[in-house]
């Protein structure tokens, strides 16, 4: 886990990938959370990174549920 390791570059890369994937499926809330985390991680691991990842996980669960229902 990039946050636990203090790996800001890894966190930024993972957030970038998540932002792109979220954008591909129209998950705007998740895209915004990931984009914000990506931008902030470029300056180092944000102090609230773990909390923000929890919010992103919650947004992912909502997205997954909506996509599953759509299928």
**What is the H/E string?**
HHHH
Provide the residue-averaged pLDDT.
94
Contiguous runs where pLDDT drops below 50 for at least 5 residues: none
The main β sheet shows up as: none
Roughly how many Å apart are the termini? 31 Å
CA radius of gyration? 12 Å
Question: Proportion of β residues?
Answer: under 5%
Fraction of residues in helices? over 70%
Structural classification: mainly alpha
The count of strands amounts to 0
- Tell me the overall shape: elongated
**Number of helical regions:** 4
Describe the structure.
The structure is a single chain. With 71 residues, this protein is mainly α. The chain has four helices and no strands. Helix 2 runs antiparallel to helix 3 and helix 3 packs antiparallel against helix 4. The chain is elongated and about 40 Å long. The model has no long low-confidence stretch (mean pLDDT 94).
Protein traits:
80% helix, mainly alpha
Sum this structure up briefly:
The chain has 71 residues and is mostly helical.
List the helices and strands and how they pair.
Elements (H helix, E strand, L loop, with lengths): L1 H4 L2 H17 L3 H14 L7 H22 L1
Helix pairs in contact: 2-3, 3-4
């Amino acid at each position: 886990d990039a946050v636990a390791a203090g790996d800001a570059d890894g966190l930024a890369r993972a957030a970038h990938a998540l932002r792109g994937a979220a954008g591909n499926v129209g998950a705007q809330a998740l895209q915004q959370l990931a984009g914000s985390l990506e931008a902030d991680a470029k300056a180092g691991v944000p102090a609230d990174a773990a909390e923000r990842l929890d919010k992103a996980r919650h947004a992912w669960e909502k997205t997954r549920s909506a996509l599953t229902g759509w299928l």
